[in-house]
Design brief:
By secondary structure, the protein is of the alpha/beta class. It folds into four domains: 165 residues, P-loop containing nucleotide triphosphate hydrolases (Rossmann fold, 3-Layer(aba) Sandwich); 93 residues, Helicase, Ruva Protein, domain 3 (Orthogonal Bundle); 119 residues, Cysteine proteinases (Cathepsin B, Chain A, Alpha-Beta Complex), CATH 3.90.70.10; 50 residues, no CATH class. 41% of the residues lie in helices and 14% in strands. It contains 19 helices and eleven strands. The strands form two sheets. It has a six-stranded antiparallel beta sheet with strand order 6-11-7-8-9-10, sandwiched between helices. It has a five-stranded parallel beta sheet with strand order 2-3-4-1-5, with helices on both faces. Helix 9 crosses helix 10 and helix 10 packs across helix 11.
């Protein structure tokens, strides 16, 4: 219902563990690295734990998407099994042939051992993954340990990954299971997101689904984190319900009131901590009040606000600037018309756009919208023609200016009757700071390239980064999104003043296109009158 309303390609807050939406926080990146490294070793256990909804299964699915060469996997999703049932399930998952009438433990272990030896002779490795492992009975867990005794003189034949909730760690601490605990060579525990990670997670999922603007205000994000306690699954549930609520209410974004209503529908405030006293609550209220009174309008976080005009700021324009506000207002056009003009800067001439949000129509041309809040200095760095949101007390509805070039201290605005040149500092004062620009999608892949994406998209990213000598990355065809590629990407992001999250998102791809000079890209600096 709501995706097309907000310009999304699909609902992006499903609770299904879709690796395309994997958000690699520092801890999730560490967990994925341990799984990839653990699959290349021989024998032993890797333990991945975390509270319900922290992303264990999603990390596992991402690992399976980039499974190392020569690894054969048996995945057990239902651990409510006896020792014999578990062995049958493992044999079936590995494709081991055994007599259906002979299912004694000894015969099952013999059949599995023969299969593992065959894999070893072929230079392949066997990996057993048990999800929800906290539900394993101690006797069954001990049976899994005994399977790791299958070995040659030099190699263990079976590697085991245990994924489970925090009580799995408590179970392994029992004296009766100390032999299992001693064989764990890597332990990773996923904790809930902090507030910064929650915000980054929400924005990441929106970007993957094609979001071209900020859909959640800062107070809404704060409330989502508080309600969800930073658990990704609960974040997804609340965000999905909040977007639906904003759609039903015909709102352009999700504010704190919409989130609060959605939270009540889902069952109150699970994240509310009743131990908070009056003093912390007063501090929070005071900070929010200051944000409303002092800085809220400037950051565009708090939804509708009093428009910024020279008169409201006490500004007096000198005689050399006389008439500039009127000339700019005359250049303001509705968003669909502004988008058509912006497309022409990309060499795309259309008489009109289809139904729906303008940004939802540009994907057909291999383009994507990127919105933000900033200044002309921000747009100089991005180096793309842009639509500038101009809010004013004299305008009945918000409109857009089409910024087609920046030259020296002048901003060049596209109009039907020709280009209007205004002083950049004057435009910065009148402009709300909100912008929408177009950028060119990679020839392969989507708006975000990271672990779990198709090999051709990862290969393209590697080739582009390898064109920058300072990164020291070879363009050889390495398998998947390896650590060398991630480190090179993070170095590039830091060099461009971007968050080094190891994911090639819209701002990273825009900066990369600027550095490697991709063809067919409209640039502000290339404008000629």
């Amino acid at each position: 219902m709501y995706p097309s309303y907000f310009g999304l390609f699909e609902p992006c807050f499903s609770i299904a563990p879709d690796p395309r939406y994997l958000f690699l926080s520092a801890q999730h990146r560490e967990a994925l690295a341990h799984l990839v490294h653990g699959a290349s070793e021989q024998g032993g256990f890797v333990l991945l734990t975390g509270e319900v909804g922290t992303g264990k299964t999603t990390v596992c699915r991402a690992f399976l998407e980039q499974l190392p060469e020569g690894v054969e996997v048996a995945l057990i999703l239902n651990p409510y099994l006896t020792a014999r049932e578990l062995l049958v399930a493992v044999c079936e998952a590995f494709g081991v042939a055994f007599d259906g009438q002979e299912r004694s433990l000894r015969r099952l272990i013999d059949a599995l051992g023969h299969h593992l030896l065959t894999l070893h002779a072929q230079g392949r490795r066997a990996l057993l993954i048990v999800d929800e492992a906290q539900n394993l009975r101690p006797r069954v867990l001990e049976q899994i340990r005994l399977l790791t005794n299958l070995e040659t003189n030099t190699h263990k034949l079976l590697r085991v990954f245990l994924l489970g909730q925090p009580e799995l760690r408590q179970m392994l601490a029992r004296p009766a299971l100390r032999q299992v605990d001693q064989r764990i060579t890597a332990r990773v525990h996923l904790r809930p997101f902090d507030r910064t990670e929650t915000t980054a997670y929400i924005r990441h999922r929106l970007a993957v689904a094609g979001c071209d603007r900020a859909l959640f205000t800062a107070p809404a994000l704060w409330r989502i984190h508080r309600w969800s306690r930073g658990l990704p699954r609960l974040i997804n549930v609340l965000c999905d319900r909040s977007l639906l609520g904003a759609y039903v209410g015909h709102r352009p974004w999700v504010d704190a009131r919409v989130v609060a209503h959605a939270a009540r529908e889902l069952g109150g405030e699970p994240g509310h901590d009743r131990s908070y006293g009056a003093r912390p609550a007063l501090i929070v209220t005071t900070v929010l009040a200051l944000a409303l009174g002092i800085g809220g309008w400037g950051m565009g976080w708090l939804g509708p606000r009093t428009p910024f005009t020279p008169s409201s700021a006490g500004l007096s324009l000198g005689s050399s600037l006389a008439g500039t506000p009127e000339r700019l207002r005359a250049a303001v056009v509705p968003e669909p018309e502004a988008m058509l003009r912006l497309l022409r800067r990309w060499g795309i001439d259309r008489d009109g756009l289809g139904e729906g949000a303008p940004c939802g129509q540009v994907g057909a041309f291999g383009l994507r919208c990127e919105s933000g809040q900033g200044s002309l200095a921000t747009l100089r760095r991005l180096d793309r023609p842009a639509l500038l949101r101009l809010d004013g007390a004299e305008t009945t509805t918000p409109g857009y200016l089409v910024l087609t070039g920046l030259t020296g201290r002048q901003a060049l605005i596209d109009r039907p009757e020709g280009v209007l040149a205004v002083q950049a500092e004057v435009l910065d004062r009148l402009w709300s700071g909100r912008f929408v620009l177009l950028w060119k999608l990679p020839p392969v892949g989507g708006a975000v390239i990271g672990p779990g994406d198709p090999p051709e998209a990862i290969r393209w990213l590697r080739q582009q980064l390898a064109k920058l000598p300072e990164l020291g990355l070879s363009d050889h065809d390495a398998p998947g999104f390896d650590p060398m590629l991630r480190k090179a990407l993070e170095r590039f992001q830091r060099s461009q003043g971007l968050a080094a999250d190891g994911l090639a998102g819209p701002r990273t791809l825009i900066a990369l296109h600027n550095r490697v000079d991709r063809p067919g890209v409209a640039r502000l600096r290339e404008w000629r009158p």
